[in-house]
Write a structure and sequence with these properties.
alpha/beta, 7-stranded mixed β-sheet, 22 strands
Amino acid sequence: MTTVESAPMAQPTWRPPAGALWSGRWVDGASAMPVRDPEDGSLLGHVTDTGPAEVDQAVTGVAAAVTSGEEWPAWRRREALDAAARLVLRRREVLTEVMSREGCKTLREATAEVSRAAETLRLSAQQTGRLTGETLPFSDTSRGAGRLGWYTREPVGVVAAVTPFNDPLNLVAHKVGPALAAGNGVVLKPAEATPLTALAFAEILLDAGVPAERLAVIPGTGAGAGRALVGHPLVDLVSFTGGFRTGNEVARAAGAKKTLMELGGNNAVLVLDDAAREAAAHAVVAGAFGVAGQNCLSVQRVFVSSRIADRFVRDVVTATEALRVGRKTDPRTDIGPLISEREARRVQEWVREAREGGAEVRTGGRREGAFHWPTVLTGVLADAKVMREEIFGPVLVIEPFETVDEAITRANDTRYGLQAGIFTAGLETALDVAERLRVGAVMINDSSDFRIDAMPFGGPKRSGVGREGVRYAMEAMTEPKIVAVRRGA
């Protein structure tokens, strides 16, 4: 793994129509915020640094469109979202460039995310015809005599979507797509680091036929635009993806309103002695180091049977050292930068703490600017940060176990519970382990880093509140409304 070569980067070819979107039009707000490439610090452009008064204008405009604006029936919503899915694919090159330049994804990773975002929109369009209610059993009680009734699902109103930097297109689609499909209006506050992707996506939605009055995009800081948005009295539901600490701040600012929160993970994989060892090692490496580990589903802890632990560690180290760290624009690159040099320094500090506690660095451990080389640790103390907290960086811990019961106990010994994986040839064992792991999803003979966008996505403990995934987000973003008729009155 060589030093990352530096070279001047060309300016991006796409520019947003303006720095923000609200009240049905592209606007430049009173203050501007620079957007930089985390790889080399180069300036990519400016967006609006939205202030509280501008947030109020954006939310008020979307709320008015939902409550008293032009009707937007389900069939039109379906057509617009289907059209948006096709446009996302047609504009793949633009989206890939913008996403990769302002964020931390390599060209290959950004290209794959474009396809996923199009699928998310397609799934959202399909769900518009499935927002059905049902009749209610009034005849099941004597008090219901002479009555009949039913319920329908109605949009909650205004959805505030607060999105992270690591999947700046698909995680926006995962909030905006279901919210619009359900008939809501959306005010989107993208991550400070990746607002250009959100603005490019909004342009596609408008071109596809989404009413401009029902969508606002308000770049800005979490303390400024974010706090004003989630606490606004006309916001009916907050959908947030980010860290646990920020999630607590969002909950306090939101007050008594509906929330959907995905707050991260510290995901474990169990490798039993009858597992296909080399396949498990390659899956773990792919799951740990994609997007430089900046993924809530990343493999962070691996518990491997002591009978195969030494060979498994060698397999993982070999596969890790085959990864190429380099510039995002190089198609040969496997691992790009973290989202900032500050985050890379934090990861480096966590590794240092583990080493001081006796951990051994089997490979990696090196940092250069915003780049941190993929790192494999063994012999890590149970109370080290890399074991207890979500590292959100390219660091993998491997520890041996003697019994399956021990492995399950250690995997569950975390305040998070997003997803987990298990590798074994025994189906009964796999099902037993899956039942006993306290997580939102268990992947058998796969790493924790697997998701399809139709899954209910989330987990217990610190991993969040509610479930995402198109169908499940739409259920949360609607309310049942009952109609009851008293016959013969």
